[in-house]
Amino acid sequence: MKPLTIHHTRDPNATTAPPDSHQDTYSKTVLGFWIYLMTDCLLFASFFATYVVLHESTASGPSSQELFSLSTAFIETMILLFSSVSCGFAMLAAVKSQKNQTIAWLAVTFILGLSFLAIEGHEFFTLVQEGNSWSRSAFLSAFFSLVGTHGLHISVGLLWMATMIGQLTFSGITIAIFRRLVIFSMFWHFLDLIWIFIFTFVYLMGVI
Amino acid sequence: MVWALIVITFLSFIVWLHHFFTMGASPNVNAFFAIMTMLIAIPTGVKLFNWLFTKFRGRVHFMSPMLWFFAFMLNFSIGGMTGILLSAPPVDYQVHNSLFLIAHFHGMVIGGVLFGFFCGFTYWFPKFTGFFLSEKLNRYAFWCWFSGFLLAFMPLYMLGFMGATRRLDHYEASTGWHPLFVLVAFGAFIILCGVVIQMYGLLKSILDRKDNLDLTGDPWNGRTLEWSVPSPPPFYNFAKTPIVDQLDPLWATKRGQAPPQQADYEDIHMPKNSPMGIYMGIFSLLFGFAAVWYMLWLALLSGVAIVVCAIIRTTGEDEHDLISKEEIRALEEARLRKGTA
Predict the structure, then answer these.
(1) Residue B238, Cβ neighbours under 10 Å: how many?
(2) Domain co-membership, B74 together with B194
């Protein structure tokens, strides 16, 4: 089991040789993904701003105090936080080239993510059942847009995780797959961060 | 120049309300956006003088890209100055929705953006296609566009001051606007001639491309590095990545101030071509169409297809092609032979 090394240069003396621009796809991909995450930040910032502005516009419908359950949101938060931890463990295993451990931790992350999505889906379903869908008020439109977009990101993350597990099973940990794991974990931690803001601004401040 | 660019980039985010001065926002809001709009004129002025002084005491060749450039400068200045007039809310209340405004923003969009675009298009056309646009036809088109533009839009400034608003369906003869409007219509017709000549010129240049080939790769005696590679550039762009150790390495080499960069060829790694991007584009089009018209089956089908394409693209193992030294040497030497022949 040899540890993975990212070669930024073809020169064996990696610390002194100038980087090879044609070889160095790793840092380019990571930089590109950071830029993508920043654009995603802009997207969520717009949704947060919209939510803050429309929060009181309930059209004499139910307010956030009447609708949200802090305990459910707290459970969702814990699940997502622990999924970030298990994602971190998967990365640690990947750095050590431990294929099976990586797959196992990714599977744990997947199950946690899926449970989060199930709870959120149940919450949305109940709201719509009780007649409090996105068409009820501007407040609920903003709520479903913001939290729904996050949920959509989580769903994409789950799909991504499934393909990563598939790739690991068939090809093991190669440089390309390791690179994809790195950007996947960036994506997953980013979603966790966004959820912390949703928990704070939507649920916590909505109930208190 | 760089600071002017940065300041414009920043200020341009906080001027947008100058489109809505008459909306009824408070005077303080209008004042803020008015001042920001006026401020943006300063870095823009810096840029204009910068361009102007680049030409000063230079040897200016009046080829078609340069003609488009000067027309751009003139119209951009006129449009910019009328823009400063409009940026004062009291003035804006007077000429809001009038033909003065129309003349101003067409000056920016046509005289500024479009002429600038045509300048760049003509200049780099030989670089990305390997042959020239017909210089003669491009000149004809330019003079039609330029004179037609002035004839069509300068009278609109006057008409705006005389009280003509946009989108009129008729006006009284007693207003005395008629001669100016006739002039405007004539100008628009000349622009149309310019458009037709341009289209014809593009088509003719493509059909006669064998006679207009750019074999040197550097038709304008350019300063910047794209002119050091053949036209159109080989798929690996530079046979050897140039080392940029000063402002204009190519220019320095041309003037004998720097040694030419050695062309000892190396293997080049290229990302592999993949058709998945275009497939995803096609399926996205279908997906959008299906979503607009509530065609559930098509939305599902194309949605799944997009995801499948993305998975295929992102799970492949071999993402790179290696072009060997020998291949590059053969390609480069073949090009040199063609260039000298």
Answers:
(1) 15
(2) yes
- Judge whether B104 and B84 are in contact, CB under 8 Å: no
Which of A20, A21, A22, A169 to mutate to test binding with chain B, by most B CBs within 10 Å of its CB?
A: A22
Smallest Cβ–Cβ distance between A176 and the set B271, B307, B317 belongs to B317
> In sequence order, which residues have a C-beta less than 8 Å from that of residue B240 and are 6 or more positions away?
B261, B262, B263, B264, B265, B266
Interface predicted TM-score (ipTM) of this complex, two decimals: 0.77
Q: What is the pLDDT of residues B101-115, one digit of tens each?
A: 999 999 999 999 999
| Candidate from A22, A163, A174 with C-beta closest to B268 | A22
| Bond preceding residue B27 cis, omega within 30 of 0 | no
Residues of A in contact with B241 (CB under 8 A): 21-22
For B321, the enclosing helix (H) or strand (E) is strand B320-323
Would A116 be classed as within a structural domain?
Answer: yes
Q: Chain B partners of A184 at a C-beta cutoff of 8 Å?
A: none
The DSSP annotation for B90-119 comes to HHHHHHTTBHHHHHHHHIIIIIIIIHHHHH
Chain A contact for B315 (CB, 8 A cutoff): yes
> How much helix, strand and coil, in percent to the nearest 5, is found in chain A?
75, 0, 25
Residue A148 · residue A97 · CB < 8 Å = no
Instruction: Using a CB–CB cutoff of 8 Å, tell me whether B320 touches chain A.
Output: yes
Instruction: Decide if A163 and B315 are in contact by the 8 Å CB cutoff.
Output: yes
Stretch (H or E) spanning B315:
helix B296-315
Q: What is the pLDDT of residue B319?
A: 67
B262 touches chain A (CB under 8 A): no
Query: What is the rounded CA–CA span in Å between residue B71 and residue B185?
Result: 21
Q: In CATH, what number is assigned to the domain containing residue A125?
A: 1.20.120.80
User: Per-residue pLDDT tens for A106-132?
Assistant: 999 999 999 999 999 999 999 999 999
User: By CA distance, what is A167's nearest residue in B?
Assistant: B315
DSSP state of A13: -
- Residues B208, B125 share a domain: yes
Distance from CA of A95 to the nearest CA of B (A): 19
Domain with A177, as residue range(s), is: 68-207
- Judged on CB neighbours under 10 Å (0-12, 13-18, 19+), B193 is middle
Alpha-helical runs (H) found in A96-137: 99-129
Residues of A in contact with B314 (CB under 8 A): 163, 180
H-run or E-run covering B270: strand B268-271
Contact across the interface for A159 and B315, Cβ inside 8 Å: no
Whole-structure pTM value: 0.77
How many domains are there within chain A? 1
Residue at A5 is within a domain: no
Q: How many domains does chain B have?
A: 4
Q: How far apart are CA B323 and CA B325, in angstroms?
A: 7
- Chain A: nearest CA to B263, how far in angstroms? 17
Instruction: Count chain A–chain B contacts defined by CB atoms under 8 A.
Output: 20
Q: Is B270 on the interface with A (CB under 8 A)?
A: yes
Answer yes or no: are the C-beta atoms of A17 and A119 closer than 8 Å: no
